[in-house]
Design brief:
Blueprint lengths: L7 H8 L19 H23 L4 E2 L3 E5 L1 H5 L5 E6 L2 E3 L1 E3 L1 E5 L1 H12 L8 H21 L7 E2 L3 E6 L10 E10 L2 E9 L1 H10 L17 H11 L15 E7 L2 E8 L2 E2 L12 E2 L2 E2 L21 H8 L8 E4 L7 H5 L17 E5 L2 E11 L2 E9 L2 H7 L2
Antiparallel strand pairs: 1-9, 2-9, 3-6, 3-8, 4-5, 4-7, 6-10, 9-10, 11-12, 12-13, 14-15, 16-17, 17-18, 18-19
């Protein structure tokens, strides 16, 4: 749990505008978000949000009308207290982008105290897990309401208690949903920030969103198009006389079924006779006289070879570096209510069978398997299965 202090390095980085762990949001961009459609979505979500909160806490929170606005990082910082509980649950499928929930510490403590049935609960790791569970339920309700977006999914929530300047906000202009809650006369706010890409995707799924720019007309070229074409041809557009190309005009002569372009010089029609250099015979789809490009096959290096002498020498430079080695007996998952109900004598069943090899990890990456042994009065592990040395080094990169 953070105590609200910032190291001197972090202070210097923030003062100089350096990104601390991806926390800065970059320059603001002009984005036109359909806040009207997003507000309708928030109105439909508010009853589910308060119902989820009351179900988890057993309290009787009330909720007011939510609001949605488009703003940037600096504008949101002005709304927040100095310390916040930030929960990241970015969308990773269907829509991809930032999804951030923000609570004042008092709101986070209230939720934790009610769920854990204790007064003035501290915002420790257990409390942050409880808040993350509430955010997960809220995100699940949103995904259900956005069933029009196929495969919509979000990352598991990660909650932290940090100074607001340390939070990773969406970049540029983003959408901020504000849900006002009250309990026993005390007001709380749940802020929900989503990136402009996510906000636009939500609005379009609900039949709104900013309209796409109209496609250009398939008719005559406008002045800008003519000027662009003329600049490529080395001339300038002319009104009525076609396009001037290197001093030679192109006039249009009526013919059966349309127009025929014929060269003119000095405004005089040459009667359809080809000018020198204007037309060339074709061979194989290319004008005669043009050189054929030199085409060569690409030679790719052999990727199947083993490590070079230089690579082996580089590995030798780190042979005396200490690394953390752990032996993992097994794992399991428990619901929060089961974890809170644990006490002395509780037996936790793991996902390993009796007699099954344990995992040996280096820097939290598995490299081998083994069996538990007793050496004098200490536990040990006998390696029974291991990867080759180069495979182990490759996995640790």
């Amino acid at each position: 749990m953070s105590d609200g202090t910032i190291s001197q390095d972090e202070i210097d980085a923030l003062l100089s505008g350096v990104d601390v762990g991806g926390l800065s949001s970059g320059p603001s961009s002009s984005v036109n978000l359909d806040t009207a459609t997003l507000t309708k979505f928030a109105e439909g979500m508010k009853d589910k949000a308060v119902s989820n909160l009351n179900t988890m806490t057993g309290a009787s929170f009330e909720i007011g009308s939510p609001s949605v606005e488009a703003l940037d990082r600096d504008q949101l910082l002005a709304k927040l207290p100095e310390m916040v509980v930030a929960v990241m649950a970015d969308f990773n499928a269907g829509l991809k982008g930032d999804h951030l929930i923000l609570l004042a510490p008092e709101f986070g403590q209230k939720i934790t105290s009610l769920i854990n049935k204790e007064d003035n609960a501290e915002l420790d790791d257990m409390a942050l897990s409880v808040i993350g569970e509430f955010v997960s339920t809220h995100s699940g309700s949103e995904i259900t309401d956005l069933s029009a977006i196929a495969g919509l999914a979000a990352n598991p929530p990660e909650a932290v208690h940090v100074p607001k300047a340390m939070v990773r906000f969406p970049q540029g202009t983003f959408a901020l949903f504000s849900y006002p809650f009250t309990l026993d006369g005390q007001s709380y706010t749940l802020w929900e920030a989503v990136s402009s890409e996510v906000a636009e995707g939500i609005a379009k799924a609900l039949g709104g969103g900013t309209p796409d720019p109209a496609p250009a007309s398939g008719g005559a070229l406008n002045a800008a198009d003519m000027a662009s074409m003329a600049s490529l041809a080395g001339g300038s557009p002319q009104m009525g006389g076609g396009m001037n190309m290197g001093g030679m005009g192109m006039a249009q002569q009526p013919m059966m079924g349309g127009f025929q372009q014929q060269p003119m010089m000095g405004g005089m029609n040459m009667g359809g006779m080809p000018m020198g250099g204007m037309q060339q015979p074709m061979m194989g789809g290319m004008p005669m006289g043009m050189s054929m490009p030199n085409v060569q096959s690409v030679q790719y290096p052999n990727l199947a070879g083993g490590p070079t002498t230089q690579e082996q020498g580089n590995i030798g430079l780190i042979m005396d570096v200490n690394m953390e080695m752990t032996v993992e007996l097994g794992r399991t998952k428990k619901q929060i209510k089961d974890i809170l109900g644990m006490g002395e004598g509780t037996i936790i069943e793991l996902d390993k069978l009796a007699g099954e090899p344990v995992d040996i990890l280096v820097n939290h990456k598995p490299i081998a398997k083994g069996e538990v042994v007793v050496i004098d009065e200490n536990f040990g592990v006998r390696v029974t299965e291991i990867l080759s040395p180069m495979e182990r080094v490759s996995d640790l990169r």
